[in-house]
Backbone:
């Protein structure tokens, strides 16, 4: 079989590997992203990945290689190159695929620095003192033992990431946290730091054939580093051969022991002054700097590596089984990066055009770069934040070190990148490079003297940069050289100055005396423009657009004749985002803390988090939470996978966070991180924010309104059933989207059963009830001594003991918490005790936070826990003794026993339990929740624990039992999650409701959160990234880290994402967005048998169109476009007629003509002037006659459409006025997926009355068809109208004695018709009873008929309409049904509930 290799990498290394493979005659496959495809032009085939994360996804790479029928996969460096799981996955493909790299066993050792050190120790290879650590306390102990400095390292770090040198104890905590953050596995170790003069970084290149045959290809020196990232490498080193030989011997002994196969680098630290050396680590892959070895040994390393993974090839067959002679030439590699040395080497994103580049060339010069497309694609490349900053590698060879240095200096000076902003409108800034630093290194006298160590660059950075700027600044045009004008170029002068650094610019020729006219006006108000003159008096510095300075005169400031000015280019503060998402720090305001460099926010200070959630606070207690100390990290940025802290400049308090600064955001230089308030400044009261009061009040009212329904009884029966089954663990979970009544139901249950409620904080706005903040922080924080599984188990058992001891004190009235509530009595029944306890813990809780009783209660529990865990006895025990815990529980239980043992005596309810599911430290497979569940498996206590969650993986909350599972797996089987639950307060009406009442804020709030959101917008909101983000995460499985790349979605994908939000109108403020994101509506099913008196509430709170989006993706057909149009038309009508985006009242309804006007704006006149039909049936026969009043007058101003979302009803009999009035009360329209019911949907309206009664309800009924056989006229399809007879469909009751006087509207949408038109039907077929109807035929789907469709969005609607278009088949695997189920956490694990959702027989769930 011919060899075919997939290169699982990008950039210059991918091009490097593809070239060698093609030279061997192999077929090649590249993987790429839409915004990073330059390397793909060098392959025979290219496969597009969905996201950056796919480069690290073993399954994606293996599946891609298998589909492409590859024989080999080359990982390059970085990404999956050191992951043994990729090798294993490839071996399991059919047929098996060869991984071009060491065996999985070798990778496991080589990629783990501690295992590598242990192997070295076994082979008597020198290593620095070190040990594995799990806390900063361990680091402090090590530092005290060996002395500072010490070095903290990630076990799986690399490229300078995950490494921090600590010079004193005070630096340990921050350094430990940063290293942990940069370690993918969250595992670190510490070793004695060997840095300073004399210590060089030397590495040996090894090659092996996997049989024990290994050889070395000499060494390289990589001592020129910044923050342990290599910048300049040379081969060979300038150490004497006698000093290199011990390193070679050690490398070969390690490689032989590992049966090493392929390329590998063995790294060491060598003191050139003393001769000391120690082994550092193994890099089991091709290195970035392999190029210099290739140059001095004259060998294509990648070609040799590929050949070693073909049959019957060994080092001997490659003539590499004997040591090569020592190199006689020298080679230098210079890494050109997109970093700005003048700004602390910050990342410099932007766009580079081929026309702006000048590459060096000549004998002995090699350029490895990804800024090349091999003639495929545009000659323009984007430097972003997703990957490292490497642009190119300059590789230079010479016969002596002096010669190679001279050649390297020339190479750097020849390189030029013209720094002009691209004219593409991308908003990206010009890219800066580190070329001046490279030049400065070569110019420094220490370079030729060989006096370089690993900290040399950082010690001499200022001098190096000055030398480099001088060197690259020498690049000027030859004297006497003139250029002819090119085309219509408007250039006013030659390019000059420092092109070699990427730090130069195209100079715009400006002269003193130049006169300009400055015109100013508000946007789109030209009539208000003013004109001013601006004269340049003198010019100080001109490297525009980088810097322009001088003195000017302007009529803008007539009182000041001359003004000094300086115009300096700065990185945009909205990198990777739309404008307006962030705000800039004011450099003149000392309180403003600005972000000094571009990067991704990975951590924010707890004070900023608190204010982002709470908004503001005046309390003394909360004020302490806002305190920060000078030097404390306020924001941590990840730049090229390395973490950088933005620290507080002085002691003070956080006044407010910067807009948009949150974890995951990509922020630019100058972004406002936060505003600080000096600790000595008296704080003034914040201004009140009343605009979001409705959002908070909705939650509070939904909680305090009279509870209706039996969900609390169903929940208790469910808990009792699981408790009595001794095969099951004594805990389970309840998982639903927020706002469906979980917490309220638990609270209602606590009125009759003893429940201890705990509300955790999950990192977002937690709604109602409020969070138990201190307890949540206590349970979710990392306690220094709890860093093992056993200690966490001991901690939680101590917490339980303290909780029961404190509860027992409450029940005995011995805990004085200043409560004036009724005391507990000896003769209280268990139900009365439960009710009194609830009064203390949960009764009348304001939205702002819990009352003092509950806060004090948990403070006592925290103090008791800390007392237990601080005792000598506790620390000395390897396992927590059960006796004290059982005694504490018994004190509570004895008050609650009533002779019934069929249910638990005590229930502990953890609300927002997903806060406990984050992995702890280096163990990705265990969390605080797994430990808690293990603890709560105690069957000796009459205790049941309920984990309540709004989101999260169901398996995390209800981990399945496995007999071969790890220690934390449940000891018992776990019962299924409880998911069928929701508010049903809207099920009953008392007959007094009217339009004003049902659209009032109080009523809306009672119907379940969050009905506070109102409007979307009148056009398809393709630009709302927030909506797209949510839809992409839920529907497209796009990783969170890839969200900034939403632009790559095609229009159909975008609309599918937005369809999740269809029933959710919303006002565009941040708080409403947060609420809607976390609290989506309940999706309901009603049937004829039970109707709304026993309504079925579906667990999914994601509405109808989330289903629709799935069916579209799966190639099925539903009426998505029509429902979307109706919602958009309604929103536009409400906004136009009410004139405001409000939460209640007229901000929620519109008249029928207003609704139709927005829906059919192009055909408005025809529809408004349409006459209806009176269809009658009498004993002599049937006839119809026209209704004498046109539509607009018939419906006039005394009709009201109140439809903010749709419910899918599974039986058409529910579409009856007595049911529609209840739907109307909650602002719902109807969708009927049953094709036999005669209609596809209905929008109810009130007619000639504002009172809600069945006699006042009418409806717009519609049918929708996509068949192209229907043309402009409806003659062939009049039966579609006749099937919508209101008596046949059940809208009106045929048994009523008198005919209904309320007119209806019937519309047939022939969306598949090619010619758009609107026709008024003037004849019809009488039914069983007399009724009045206005019939409208709508053909086509385009701006000619629909007001909500414009020319730009019409193709999107058409794509959605087609349904089976291949472009709509995205991100759906063979487990497509599971994807749909996973839209609701919990449903996927409950087969019966899932079946009840999709069934059409009207059966309801028992729970």
Residues:
């Amino acid at each position: 079989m011919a060899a075919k290799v997939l290169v699982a990498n990008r950039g210059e290394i991918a091009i490097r590997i593809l070239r060698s493979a093609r030279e061997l005659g192999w077929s090649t496959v590249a993987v790429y992203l839409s915004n990073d495809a330059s390397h793909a032009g060098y392959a025979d085939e290219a496969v597009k990945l969905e996201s950056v994360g796919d480069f690290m996804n073993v399954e994606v790479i293996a599946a891609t290689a298998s589909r492409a029928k590859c024989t080999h996969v080359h990982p390059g460096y970085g990404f999956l190159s050191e992951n043994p799981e990729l090798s294993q996955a490839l071996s399991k493909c059919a047929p098996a695929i060869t991984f071009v790299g060491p065996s999985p066993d070798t990778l496991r050792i080589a990629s783990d620095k501690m295992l590598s050190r242990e192997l070295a120790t076994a082979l008597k290879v020198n290593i620095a003192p070190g040990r594995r650590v799990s806390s900063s306390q361990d680091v402090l102990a090590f530092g005290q033992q060996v002395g500072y400095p010490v070095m903290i390292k990630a076990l799986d770090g690399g490229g300078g990431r995950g490494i921090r040198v600590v010079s004193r104890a005070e630096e340990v905590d921050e350094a430990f946290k940063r290293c942990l953050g940069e370690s993918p596995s969250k595992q670190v170790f510490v070793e004695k730091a060997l840095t300073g003069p004399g210590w060089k970084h030397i590495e040996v290149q090894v090659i092996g054939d996997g049989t024990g045959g290994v050889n070395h290809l000499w060494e390289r020196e990589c001592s020129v580093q910044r923050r342990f990232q290599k910048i300049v490498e040379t081969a060979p080193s300038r150490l004497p051969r006698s000093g290199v030989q011990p390193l070679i011997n050690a490398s070969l002994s390690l490689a032989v022991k590992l049966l090493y196969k392929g390329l590998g680098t063995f790294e060491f630290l060598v003191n050139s002054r003393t001769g000391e050396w120690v082994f550092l680590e193994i890099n089991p892959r091709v290195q970035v700097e392999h190029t210099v070895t290739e140059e001095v040994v004259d060998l294509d390393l990648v070609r040799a590596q590929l050949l070693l993974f073909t049959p019957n090839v060994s080092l001997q067959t490659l003539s590499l089984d004997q040591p090569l002679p020592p190199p006689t030439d020298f080679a230098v590699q210079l890494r050109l990066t997109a970093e700005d040395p003048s700004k602390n080497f910050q990342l410099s994103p932007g766009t580079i055009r081929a026309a702006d580049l000048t590459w060096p060339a000549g004998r002995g010069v090699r350029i490895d770069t990804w800024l090349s497309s091999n003639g495929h694609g545009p000659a323009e490349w984007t430097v972003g934040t997703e990957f490292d900053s490497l642009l190119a590698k300059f590789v230079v060879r010479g016969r002596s070190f002096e010669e190679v240095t001279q050649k390297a200096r020339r190479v750097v000076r020849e390189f030029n990148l013209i720094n002009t902003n691209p004219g593409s409108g991308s908003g990206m800034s010009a890219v800066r490079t580190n070329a001046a630093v490279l030049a400065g290194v070569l110019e420094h006298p220490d370079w030729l003297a060989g006096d370089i160590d690993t900290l040399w660059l950082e010690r001499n950075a200022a001098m190096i940069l000055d030398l480099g700027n001088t060197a690259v600044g020498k690049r000027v045009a030859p004297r006497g050289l003139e250029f002819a004008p090119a085309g219509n170029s408007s250039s006013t002068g030659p390019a000059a100055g420092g092109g070699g650094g990427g730090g130069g610019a195209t100079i715009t020729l400006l002269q003193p005396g130049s006169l300009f006219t400055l015109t100013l006006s508000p946007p789109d108000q030209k009539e208000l423009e003013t004109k001013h003159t601006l004269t340049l008096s003198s010019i100080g510095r001109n490297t525009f657009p980088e810097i322009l300075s001088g003195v000017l005169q302007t009529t803008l400031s007539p009182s000041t004749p001359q003004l000094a000015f300086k115009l300096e280019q700065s990185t945009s503060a909205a990198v990777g985002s739309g404008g307006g998402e962030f705000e800039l720090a004011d450099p003149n305001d000392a309180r403003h803390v600005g972000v000094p460099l571009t990067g991704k926010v990975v951590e924010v200070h707890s004070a900023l988090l608190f204010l982002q959630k709470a908004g503001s606070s005046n309390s003394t207690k909360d004020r302490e939470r806002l305190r920060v100390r000078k030097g404390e990290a306020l924001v941590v940025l990840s730049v090229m996978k390395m973490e950088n802290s933005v620290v507080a400049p002085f002691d003070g308090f956080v006044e407010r966070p910067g807009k948009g600064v949150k974890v995951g955001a990509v922020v630019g230089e100058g972004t406002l991180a936060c505003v600080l308030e000096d600790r000595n400044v008296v704080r003034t009261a914040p201004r009140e924010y009343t605009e979001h009061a409705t959002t908070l009040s909705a939650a509070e009212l939904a909680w305090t309104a009279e509870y209706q329904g039996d969900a609390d009884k169903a929940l208790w029966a469910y808990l009792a059933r699981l408790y009595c089954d001794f095969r099951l663990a004594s805990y389970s979970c309840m998982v639903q989207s927020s706002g469906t009544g979980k917490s309220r139901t638990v609270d209602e249950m606590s009125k009759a059963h003893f429940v201890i409620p705990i509300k955790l904080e999950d990192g977002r706005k937690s709604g109602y009830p409020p969070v138990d903040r201190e307890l949540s922080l206590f349970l979710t924080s990392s306690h220094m001594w709890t860093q093992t599984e056993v200690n966490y188990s001991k901690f939680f058992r101590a917490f339980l003991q303290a909780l029961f001891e404190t509860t027992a004190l409450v029940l005995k009235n011995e805990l004085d918490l200043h409560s004036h509530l009724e005391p507990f009595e000896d003769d209280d029944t268990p139900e009365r005790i439960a009710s009194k306890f609830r009064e203390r813990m949960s009764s009348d809780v304001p939205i702002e936070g819990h009352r003092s009783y509950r806060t004090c209660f948990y403070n006592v529990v925290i103090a008791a826990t800390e007392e237990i865990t601080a005792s000598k006895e506790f620390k000395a025990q390897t396992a927590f003794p059960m006796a004290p815990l059982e005694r504490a529980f018994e004190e509570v239980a004895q008050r609650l026993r009533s002779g019934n043992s069929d249910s638990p005596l005590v229930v502990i309810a953890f609300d927002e339990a997903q806060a406990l599911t984050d992995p702890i430290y280096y163990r990705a497979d265990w969390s605080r929740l797994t430990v808690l569940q293990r603890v709560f498996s105690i069957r000796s206590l009459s205790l049941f624990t309920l984990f309540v969650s709004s989101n999260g993986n169901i398996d995390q909350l209800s981990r399945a039992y496995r007999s071969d599972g790890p220690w934390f797996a449940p000891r018992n089987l776990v019962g299924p999650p409880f998911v069928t639950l929701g508010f049903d307060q809207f099920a009953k009406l008392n007959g007094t409701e009217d339009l004003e009442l049902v659209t009032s804020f109080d009523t809306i709030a009672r119907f379940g959160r969050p009905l506070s959101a109102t409007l979307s917008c009148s056009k398809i909101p393709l630009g709302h990234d927030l909506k797209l983000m949510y839809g992409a995460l839920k529907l497209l499985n796009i990783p969170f880290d890839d969200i900034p790349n939403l632009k790559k979605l095609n229009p159909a994908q975008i609309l599918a994402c937005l369809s999740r939000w269809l029933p959710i109108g919303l006002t565009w403020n941040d708080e409403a967005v947060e609420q809607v994101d976390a609290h989506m509506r309940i999706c309901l099913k009603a049937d004829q048998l039970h109707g709304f008196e026993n309504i079925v509430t579906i667990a999914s709170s994601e509405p109808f169109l989330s289903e629709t989006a799935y069916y579209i993706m799966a190639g099925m057909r539903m009426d998505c476009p029509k429902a979307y149009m109706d919602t958009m038309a309604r929103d536009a009508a409400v906004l136009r007629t009410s004139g405001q985006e409000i939460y209640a009242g007229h901000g929620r309804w519109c008249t029928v003509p207003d609704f139709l006007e927005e829906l059919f704006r192009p055909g408005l006149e025809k529809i408004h002037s349409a006459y209806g039909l009176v269809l009658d049936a009498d004993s002599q026969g049937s006839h119809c006659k026209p209704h004498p009043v046109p539509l607009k007058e018939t419906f006039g101003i005394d009709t009201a459409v109140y439809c903010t979302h749709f419910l899918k009803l599974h039986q058409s009999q529910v579409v009856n006025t007595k049911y529609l009035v209840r739907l109307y009360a909650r602002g719902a329209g109807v969708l009927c997926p049953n094709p036999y019911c005669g209609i596809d949907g209905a929008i109810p309206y009130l007619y000639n009355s504002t009172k809600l009664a069945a006699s006042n309800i009418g409806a717009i009924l519609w049918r929708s068809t996509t068949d192209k056989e229907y043309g402009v006229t409806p003659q062939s399809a009049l039966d579609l109208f006749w099937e919508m007879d209101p008596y046949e469909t059940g809208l009106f009751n045929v048994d009523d004695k008198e005919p209904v006087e309320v007119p209806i509207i019937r519309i047939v949408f022939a969306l598949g018709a090619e010619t758009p038109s609107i026709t008024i039907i003037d004849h019809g077929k009488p039914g069983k009873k007399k009724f009045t109807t206005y019939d409208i035929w709508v053909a086509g789907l385009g701006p000619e008929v629909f007001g909500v469709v414009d020319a730009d969005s019409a193709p999107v609607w058409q794509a959605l309409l087609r349904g089976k278009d291949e472009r709509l088949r995205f991100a759906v695997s063979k487990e497509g049904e599971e994807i749909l189920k996973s839209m609701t956490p919990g449903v996927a694990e409950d087969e019966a509930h899932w079946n009840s959702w999709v069934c059409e027989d009207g059966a309801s769930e028992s729970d």
